[in-house]
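Q: My labmate handed me this sequence with no annotations at all. I'd like to see what the chain might look like in three dimensions before we decide whether it's worth expressing. Could you predict it?
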Amino acid sequence: MPSHLLRRSFWIAGLSAGVAFGQTSPIEAPASLKPPQEQATTAPKATRNASADLHAALSAGFKFDDPAAAKKKKEEEETDPDVDLRDVDKPRNAIVRLPKFVVQGERPPVFAEKDINTKKGLADLAVKRYLSSVGQALNKYHLPLIGMSQEQLALMMYEEDQRLKDMKDFGEKVYLYRQAGDKTGADALQKDIDRTFMRTSTFADPPK
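A: Here is what I predict for the chain of 208 residues:
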């Protein structure tokens, strides 16, 4: 039999077998390739991992406090004389706050170096302050009728330093008088400063 007739016979036989046994149903496409309207619209329900006791404990931990009520309660406790304010007003940094009180009385006197030192003690203080170790060695010995001792030299430097310091302090007071508008008081204090601290010549008249 020729080859083309043989192929024709096989084709007819296969077609007949398909008609006899019936056509199979088409292959169904996967869900991911289906149109959006055919896909499932319901999402999976989330499950709660926390237990009922844990949920209740978390809910009880976040308690709401009315700010207005808390402020009113604090004011009532502060006005109550029997309540200790240290228990009411507790700082967050745990520092203990002492109650406020006013001290009434005179201030303690401020003593100057001349008031608390003897003459010899003041001289020793001046030597240590104004003379170096070299100066103390050079002025250790002196002639009583010609030179001065290291104590006398140091005291002279001490007195000069105190004079300049007092002039500065009273000068600041004069400035405050002028800033306050008291020109008369400022002029009077300045005149007293000139009479007390200004060095004058023996041949010149003192300031008026």
